[in-house]
Amino acid sequence: AQSVTQLGSHVSVSEGALVLLRCNYSSSVPPYLFWYVQYPNQGLQLLLKYTTGATLVKGINGFEAEFKKSETSFHLTKPSAHMSDAAEYFCAVRPPNTGNQFYFGTGTSLTVIP
Amino acid sequence: DGGITQSPKYLFRKEGQNVTLSCEQNLNHDAMYWYRQDPGQGLRLIYYSQIVNDFQKGDIAEGYSVSREKKESFPLTVTSAQKNPTAFYLCASSTGAGTGELFFGEGSRLTVL
Question: B74 to chain A, minimum CA–CA distance in Å?
Fold first, then answer.
């Protein structure tokens, strides 16, 4: 079965510091990869996704992620944290040719310290 | 604007009552999903549907039921058999093919009194 691991359920960074949220997946076939953001009492919003092609993917709000096949990772980064980045972040995978199922990590709560 | 509408946003229920959560989409997506979210547990799949009149159980289907009579609609019923129904429920849809992502509604928070 597919699994998605997000290391660190809580991450705190200072405003202006680098944001790094980690995501690893278990799959012999590279899946489609996604990062979502969730603000309190709201639905999830897509930040970025990797399907094929360039392994460095840029998303909204200055976030980017790099797909590393050899490490089965898809870590999310942002060079400079802003207070508005405080939210819950979820990594998700969609294995190709498996009936449209998505698998989510347990989420990382990002706190930005002023 | 295209999107997914969930209603109600907040719902209170007495123990032993069934309740139905509404999910409507105007994105012309084939696939629709229901997830349950609890603190610290991420999203867990309850049911999903890839086409009209067809749906499959997810990881935690016990105590829930769904229908998919129209492409646009995928209501979720939380029955009295669900032992711990207090949670945040999220509806989502996708194109059902290719590399499409999930689009989410704003969620419904159910509290059992």
Answer: 16
- Rounded to a whole number of angstroms, the distance from the CA of A108 to the nearest CA of chain B is 9
| Inter-chain CB proximity A41 and B107 less than 8 Å | yes
CA angle A75, B106, A46 (to 5 degrees): 25
Residue B43 sits at the vertex; the CA angle it makes with B37 and B48, to the nearest 5 degrees, is 105
CA angle B83, B86, B89 (to 5 degrees): 115
Distance CA(A75)–CA(B50), nearest Å, equals 30
Which residues neighbour A111 within 8 Å (Cβ) at sequence distance 6 or greater?
A10, A11, A12, A13, A86
Structure confidence by residue, pLDDT tens digits, A18-68: 999 999 999 777 889 999 999 988 999 999 999 888 899 999 999 999 999
Instruction: Report whether B66 contacts B57 (CB < 8 A).
Output: no
Instruction: Please state, in angstroms and rounded to a whole number, the distance separating the CA atoms of residues A8 and A24.
Output: 12
Tens of pLDDT, residue by residue over B16-34, are: 899 999 999 999 999 999 9
